[in-house]
Structure formats: structure tokens, C-alpha cells
Amino acid sequence: MVRDVIRKENVKRYVHVPVKPKNSASNFVSQNLPMAAMFLKNKALSWACLFIAVQTYLNEPYIKDPSDDSSSGIFKILFAFVALGTSYLDLVFPTMGGFMGPNAAATATEAATEAAVSAAATASA
What we know:
By secondary structure, the protein is mainly alpha-helical.
């Protein structure tokens, strides 16, 4: 009663062609994000780059192109750990206030005053 609607001569066989792996964005992020985390000493950014590095390492067998000459996944994880350690470096070596300490302005004023007094004394002698 129902006719066969599919004609055999119009049927084409499916041939799967895999897509070339594109991991350039992942390589860029996992290579440069730890440097940004180190310069900014940002803890959240360094944790994020560690997780991205671990994810890149776990996906490497699936998306790695044989002609790709980027650094290995272990190196990216090591670099992320260095960034993490750098961001927590202030816990090991705490700073007191700013660059020169809490009384940097007063100390600088006293040093300038002493230098001026000693220069005046040497000039008058």
C-alpha cells in the first residue's frame, strides 16, 4: 500500500572526515595566563590558570596535533603552580604597609633634613 519513497540511486554513503584540532586558543591562554597571574599577584586568576592547565593536560591526547610544537602539558601545570606560589608569596614574606614601610614619608623627610644639615655644616666649615 505504501510505496518505497527512497530511491536507491539517490542515497549517498556518509563518510566521516574528522575536523583538524584547533587548540591554539587553549595554548595561548594556558601559556600566558600564569604570567598575568604572577604580575598581578591575583589568587583567583592563578587558581583559574591551574585548572585550565590541568584541563589542557587531560584533553591533550584527544586534541593534540602531531605537528604541534607547543610545550607539554606537564610544563603548563608546573608554570601554573609557579604562578600560584607567586600569588601566595605575601603569606611567606609579608610587607608592612607600602614599598618602604608604614612611615616611609616621615623617614624620607628626616633623611633629607639630615642630608641638608650635614651639607650646610660641611660648606660652612
